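Need a sequence for this fold. Nothing fancy.
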């Protein structure tokens, strides 16, 4: 069940970097990912990271490519899109908590959906496919499960999340709802994978991803950098601190923090109203509040 927004936060202390370093797993390819070890670490510590499948240089090139394809005029509102809209190339800008029927989860972020059957307008499809293969290995599914097609009623919601310089953020939450969705669809474990395209310290200086575990709050991007895959599960309390709040937001740019995600979403293209099982409530579709 969703976690109430007013749940007491744990004391915020920054864990020693060594704690973060100890949770980095090295791999050269999706097939070489040690799913058993990583799953055990996520069970123990609420998070882990995989380094080596994507390089910082590859992410720098990805950032250039995304910027080249970015069109700020494509921004859509935070709520109101049709259920199947995100199964096409689709971009939305969300500020505040509107559309979160089951939880109040304010954010300031842009989401750019780029499904793998759509035109590769950001040059990101190869990156998304490799990231989705890591997800499949962790979930003990066939390597290319539900990546380019809908399988078992699920598809890969390949997308970018942009947390703009000037305060981009999402408040602390768990991805508990989508966890239930994938569980219902026969996926043994839920994983949320974040591929960092930007690095704290170079692309932005303040804020970024945090998670809570063992009574501590981890400043994940004090250690994890562009090319690292950060892994949560449905129990991990996490969010994104304000990205460079000292900067004036310029929403016609992609300045700030950029990450790539490949969550499994339920195919609801035939549904008349929104499905509520999306983490971060990315999809609203204008469903009346009392229906979800
Ligand atoms: Fe989340």
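Here you go.
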């Amino acid at each position: 069940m969703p976690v109430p927004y007013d749940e007491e936060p744990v004391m915020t202390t920054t864990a020693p970097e060594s704690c973060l370093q100890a949770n980095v797993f090295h791999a050269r390819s999706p097939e070489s990912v040690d799913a058993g070890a990583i799953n055990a670490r996520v069970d123990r510590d609420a998070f882990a990271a995989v380094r080596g499948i994507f390089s910082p240089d590859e992410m720098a090139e990805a950032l250039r490519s995304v910027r080249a394809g970015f069109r700020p005029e494509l921004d859509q509102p935070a709520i109101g899109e049709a259920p199947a809209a995100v199964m096409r190339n689709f971009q939305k800008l969300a500020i505040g908590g509107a559309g979160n029927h089951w939880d109040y989860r304010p954010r300031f972020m842009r989401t750019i959906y780029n499904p793998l059957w759509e035109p590769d307008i950001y040059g990101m499809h190869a990156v998304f496919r490799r990231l989705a293969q890591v997800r499949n290995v962790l979930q003990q599914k066939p390597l290319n499960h539900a990546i380019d097609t809908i399988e078992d009623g699920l598809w890969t919601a390949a997308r970018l999340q942009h947390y703009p310089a000037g305060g981009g953020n999402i408040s602390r939450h768990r991805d508990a709802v989508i966890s239930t969705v994938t569980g219902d669809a026969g996926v043994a474990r839920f994983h949320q994978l974040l591929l960092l395209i930007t690095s704290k310290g170079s692309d932005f200086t303040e804020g970024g991803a945090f998670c809570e575990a063992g009574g501590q709050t981890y400043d994940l991007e004090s250690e994890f950098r562009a090319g690292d895959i950060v892994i949560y599960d449905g129990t991990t309390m996490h969010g994104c601190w304000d990205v460079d709040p000292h900067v004036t937001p310029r929403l016609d740019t992609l300045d700030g923090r950029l990450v790539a995600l490949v969550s499994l979403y339920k195919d609801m293209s035939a549904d008349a109203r929104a499905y509520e099982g999306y983490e971060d409530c990315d999809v609203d579709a204008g469903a009346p509040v009392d229906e979800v």
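For context: Residues 173, 175, 238, 279-280 surround fe (ii) ion (CB under 6 Å).
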